[in-house]
Each structure stands twice: as structure tokens, then as C-alpha cells.
Design brief:
about 325 residues; alpha/beta; Rossmann fold; 14 helices
């Protein structure tokens, strides 16, 4: 996250933290662009999700770079509900994002800002003190989301929409109702994955201690993956209860988070889900690209740079073996 000026922080707080104000601006755009919304038809709506640190941002950026998909971008901040009214040109130079993972961002970069819609329209009802809970979407809310997505597409003048949102596992069964929707779900080897999560949690915890606004920024946008206000998904009750046995500084805590996420995914698996292995983004990229290109009628050729996996030796082998079994089961569902 880039450094924000005092006036910029004030605008963020006034607009994003006041749901009445922000929702009123979206109603304004609904009214102003009603005829355009009624005429607009999606060609494709693509949803990318997965547990954080599974490669979702990489895939989002590569598909978005095809220039055929609309998405919310950093330049839409903070007025996320005014995609047509608030349009600025971004001239900032790309810089490494706060994750320190060699991914550079600018105002033109796409990001998972549509989580703010769910926060506002569901009044944070799925965000509990200790967790984020799964939920079904009322038809009216889903209809308003589709209208909002159409506004974003109209503002970018493109017929396709793409969203990367790690929280969408909480409502993915409802999102399946969206016409012409395609789902990519990223999966990464458990030990490598949770090692990365644990490392980022430690980093952002320190960042939030040193910069209170960065914590506010995470909270208002619904980022609870790591940091001082980290909240796990509550997807399978028996696994969620096991989290209480460990601290967030223990790798077992993060393995349980991994296990319940992907075990839940198997429980609700739908044939419209396209499983992508993080490791295949590195080792079998030709096959992955061909699969994506055929589904989306685009032409991505990007190769991920060399990657060095973390190395953790002390771990609960029984728990890790359970996670590895789930990883293998999901690997059997790949379509490329």
C-alpha cells in the first residue's frame, strides 16, 4: 500500500467508513446510468479466488493484461462506488506492493476492491469478532452487485468483468447464479502455502503496529488474511474449533486454516470450478495458459519467474499429511 497524505487519509475515512454516504453515491450512479445498465450484457464474468498467497494476484494481473476485462483498479480508490463519475488518469510509477513479493502496483493495477460492496450491502454481518462466516446472498443484493459490476464494465468500456477476491469462498455458492460466470480457484502445496501466510502475517502485524492507518485500510476493505486484525474463515466447525489450540505464531494454526478452506471446497465442489495449482503456474505454464485461453478466448503467454519455496522442518506430520491428501484430491480435478 502506498503512503497516504493526511487529506487522502481523511477522504478515505469520510467516504469508505461511512456506509450511508458511499451507498448513496452508488444509488446515484444506478439512477444516472440506468439505461446503460439495462442495455448492458456480460460476455463473461470471471471470479478468481483461493486462500491468500496461492497465486490469485498473478492470475488476475495476467488475465487483466489481455485488455478485454474490466476490473476495479487502484485508481478507483477511494470512491469505489463512483466508477463512472470519478475517473482519473493514473501517472504514478509502479512500485512494489507492501507484501514485498516483487509484485509492482500502480493506479492501473487491478485489485480485490469489490469486497467493499459486500461489506456495505451486508452491513458487515459476516464479519464476526473471531472469524468470517459463510453466507447465502439475498436475490436483491446479488442483483445490485450485478448492476454494480455492469457500472464498472461501462466505465472501462469492456464487455467482460474479472474479480480476484479471496473472501468469495464465503459466498461462492451464491455467485454461481451469475450468468456467464467462470471460476478459477488457486491451490498451493500446503507447507509452502502456510509458510508464506505465516511470514506475511508477521510482517503485516509489525506494519500495523507502526502505521495505524494501514490497519484501518485493511479493515475497511475487508482484508483479514493477516496482520493485527487477522480473522480466519469459519467454514467447517470441527476444524475451526481446533484453531483455539494454537497461536498465530505456530505453523499448525495456518495448516488448520488451509485444511478447512480446501476441505470445504471439496464439499461444495461444482463442475464450473476450474482448479489451478500454484505449482503449475511455475512448472506447467503452457498447459495452464492453453486452458485459460480456450475458456476466455484470450492469448496470455506469461511465464512466472523462478520461485524459491520456504523451508520449514518442524511441523505436525499428521496434520500436514491430511492437508497433502486434500491437495492430491484437488489435483485430480484439474482440467488442463
Amino acid at each position: 500500500m502506498k503512503k497516504h497524505s493526511r487529506i487522502n487519509k481523511l477522504i478515505h475515512k469520510i467516504y469508505l467508513k461511512n456506509y450511508y454516504i458511499s451507498k448513496s453515491t452508488l444509488s446515484f450512479e444506478f439512477d444516472k446510468y440506468d439505461s446503460e445498465i439495462q442495455k448492458f450484457n456480460f460476455e463473461k464474468s470471471v471470479f478468481i479466488t483461493g486462500l491468500a498467497r496461492s497465486g490469485t494476484t498473478i492470475l488476475l494481473r495476467e488475465i487483466h493484461d489481455s485488455k478485454t476485462f474490466s476490473s476495479l483498479q487502484y485508481k478507483n480508490m477511494p470512491f469505489l462506488f463512483l466508477p463512472n463519475t470519478y475517473q482519473i488518469k493514473s501517472n504514478d510509477k509502479p512500485s512494489e506492493r507492501s507484501h514485498k513479493d516483487n509484485i509492482k502496483i500502480s493506479g492501473e493495477s487491478p485489485e480485490e476492491f469489490d469486497e467493499y460492496f459486500w461489506k456495505v450491502f451486508m452491513k458487515d454481518s459476516y464479519i464476526k469478532n473471531d472469524s468470517l462466516i459463510k453466507h447465502d446472498l439475498e436475490n436483491k443484493i446479488l442483483e445490485d452487485y450485478i448492476k454494480y459490476v455492469k457500472l464498472v464494465c461501462i466505465s472501462k468500456n469492456k464487455p467482460n468483468y474479472i474479480s480476484k477476491n479471496n473472501n468469495n469462498i464465503l459466498r461462492i455458492t451464491s455467485l454461481l447464479k451469475i450468468p456467464n460466470s467462470i471460476f478459477f480457484i488457486l491451490v498451493r502445496k500446503p507447507l509452502d502455502h502456510v509458510s508464506s501466510l505465516m511470514k506475511l502475517h508477521s510482517k503485516f502485524t509489525e506494519d500495523h503496529k507502526n502505521d495505524p492507518f494501514s490497519l484501518e485500510y485493511f479493515n475497511v476493505l475487508g482484508h483479514h488474511e493477516f496482520g493485527m486484525n487477522q480473522k480466519p474463515f469459519k467454514l467447517i466447525d470441527r476444524d475451526f474449533e481446533k484453531l483455539k489450540k494454537f497461536t498465530k505464531n505456530q505453523i499448525e494454526y495456518w495448516l488448520i486454516i488451509w485444511k478447512q478452506y480446501y476441505e470445504y471446497l471439496i464439499d461444495i465442489y461444482n463442475d464450473r470450478f476450474n482448479i489451478i495449482l500454484f505449482e503449475d503456474l511455475l512448472e506447467n505454464r503452457g498447459r495452464v495458459n492453453q486452458h485459460i485461453n480456450q475458456l476466455l478466448n484470450i492469448n496470455i503467454k506469461t511465464q512466472v519467474k523462478d520461485y524459491k519455496s520456504p523451508n520449514y522442518k518442524k511441523v505436525n506430520n499428521k496434520l500436514l499429511n491430511q492437508c497433502n491428501e486434500i491437495y492430491l484430491k484437488l489435483g485430480e480435478k484439474i482440467k488442463y
